[in-house]
Amino acid sequence: MIEHRPHASLGAARHGWLDAKHHFSFADYRDPARMHWGALRVWNDDTIAAGTGFDPHPHADMEIITYVREGAISHEDNLGNRGRTEAGDVQVMSAGSGIVHSEYNLEPIATRIFQIWIYPDSRGGEPSWGSKPFPKADRSGAFVALASGMAGDDGALPIRADARVLGATLKAGESADYRLGAGRSGYLVLSAGSARVNGVALRAGDGAAIRDEDVVRVEAGEDAELILVDTRE
């Protein structure tokens, strides 16, 4: 089963400095049919104006993965972590028992990110933060784990959940397969280009909620960049 969620159907919020699209209920956007997908709770498609950002605010009991699509995001938290994550790279914050952080776009251009929240397998624990570069050339034509709590994903940023976040870039005409399997939920968003996911056509910004599909096959109609989340149901 694949449910196509066109970009135009997503929740939206415009705050002047922030233009956000919500794949799932978030803030003032409420849709009972889009509360979560497996352990995936939030997928926000954010455009942050230059010189603006999110002031210090708290989180707890959530794995928060940020994939930077354009520009860069600068992080600072009450644990003393500071870092700048730029386009194509990923940062992970395990909120654990509680963390206060800020995220700013200190660049001269708008920054575009996917921010993904996944429920952890258990509550509490020491909070943590980390970031890592993931060159797009390394995921050309294949899925690569960017963040994961699953065995064997040693090159991925660690998260405290039975889940993985994967990225792939495909040239027009290329395809890539991912084995999802029974008891798993997948959610795929096309960051750029066009593609078919098990025959369902997607354009840039569209989402695909996937369940009861043993293999997910992505076939690029144009050069495409995509992110896929695999979680327990």
Automatic annotation (TrEMBL):
Domain Quercetin 2,3-dioxygenase C-terminal cupin positions: 151-230
Residues of the Pirin N-terminal domain: 12-118
SUPFAM superfamilies assigned to the protein according to its UniProt record, in alphabetical order: RmlC-like cupins
InterPro entries to which the protein is assigned, alphabetical: Pirin, Pirin_N_dom, Quercetinase_C, RmlC-like_jellyroll, RmlC_Cupin_sf
Domain of life, per lineage: Bacteria
Pfam family, one: Pirin
Family: Belongs to the pirin family.
Lineage of producing organism: Bacteria, Pseudomonadati, Pseudomonadota, Betaproteobacteria, Neisseriales
Annotated protein name in UniProt: Pirin family protein
Source organism: Chromobacterium piscinae
